[in-house]
Design goal:
- Helix content is 30%, strand content 34%.
- It has a single domain, classed as Rossmann fold (3-Layer(aba) Sandwich).
- The radius of gyration is 18 Å and the shape is globular.
- It starts with 14 loop residues before the first helix and ends with a strand.
- The strands form 2 sheets. Strands 3-2-1-4-5-11-10 form a 7-stranded mixed β-sheet, with helices on both faces. A 4-stranded antiparallel β-sheet has the order 6-7-8-9.
- Strand 2, helix 5 and strand 3 form a beta-alpha-beta unit.
- By secondary structure, the protein is α/β, with parallel strands linked by helices.
């Protein structure tokens, strides 16, 4: 049985992560499709104040800024990804603010943002489910009355019906990424082994993600205080018929803070 460090998310998101997940999180065309989805579903205006929670290197924020949005804040815990984001946006002259913080307690002002989003399955990482609720409570606090939240989640129904215990892919014929997974109740635990043909073992780490059905995430959001919860299954940002793991097909959830 795979065992996971409860704080795995504090250490995983580094330069190796950008290699192993590059086909998803460093793909500009996929990012553009995801931003198209965000804009379309939330009907954003250029003046909207936006916060990207667990936004990594700020790829969505940067694309929004290129499209004329100018009040965007990215929150992420990873020093490495925040540094990459600052480097990227500074080099392009993009006006994006980065905050290194835990998404459960960002330190940002209450009622500061019109829109909050959590992309690329960056929800459900905590061992204690009550911390997922704290995450959503923080998002609720940050929004203005009438503000909206978008969650981009694993499609739990598809994960369960097409569960793969093992998968692997190569990166430019140099890096091999192997994953072994276990499914237990509502949690998927994965052991990720990353090997370089030149340098040997780069990573051997276990991580996990909690699965939410449309019913459970809707119930959780309503319990926090959100209303008008909408769900959309089957979102896919990649144009290739390949296995992108948990990011192959996604569940999009939108909820509003009461006006």
């Amino acid at each position: 049985m795979l065992k996971t460090d409860p704080d795995w998310w504090k250490h995983l998101f580094d330069h190796v992560y950008l290699m192993t997940d590059a086909r998803s999180v460093c793909d500009e065309s996929a990012t553009c499709r995801e931003v198209d989805m965000i804009e379309g579903l939330l009907s954003l205006e250029a003046s909207s104040a936006i916060v990207d929670l667990c936004g990594g290197q700020g790829r969505h924020a940067a694309e929004l800024c290129r499209r004329g949005f100018h009040d965007i804040t990215v929150v992420d815990y990873s020093d490495f990804l925040v540094g990459k984001g600052i480097e990227l946006t500074s080099s392009e002259g993009l006006s994006v603010s980065f905050v290194r913080a835990d998404a459960r307690s960002t330190g940002l002002p209450s009622g500061r943002f019109d829109t909050a989003f959590v992309m690329a399955n960056s929800f459900g990482y905590f061992q204690d489910p009550s911390d997922d609720r704290r995450f959503l409570e923080e998002a609720y606090r940050l929004l203005v009355p009438g503000g909206r939240l978008l969650l981009d989640l694993v499609d739990s129904e598809l994960v369960r019906s097409k569960f793969m215990e093992r998968s692997w892919h190569e990166i430019e014929e140099e890096i091999v990424v192997c994953r072994v997974r276990e499914l237990s109740e509502d949690v998927v635990t994965s052991r990720e082994i990353v090997m370089s043909k030149k340098e040997g073992l780069l990573r051997d780490q276990t991580y996990c993600v909690r699965l939410y059905s449309t019913e459970k995430i809707s119930e959780l959001l309503a319990g926090v205080g959100f209303e008008s919860v909408q769900t959309m299954r089957g979102f896919r940002s990649q144009d290739k018929a390949e296995d992108y793991g948990f990011l192959s097909n996604r569940l999009i959830v939108i909820a509003a803070k009461p006006a």
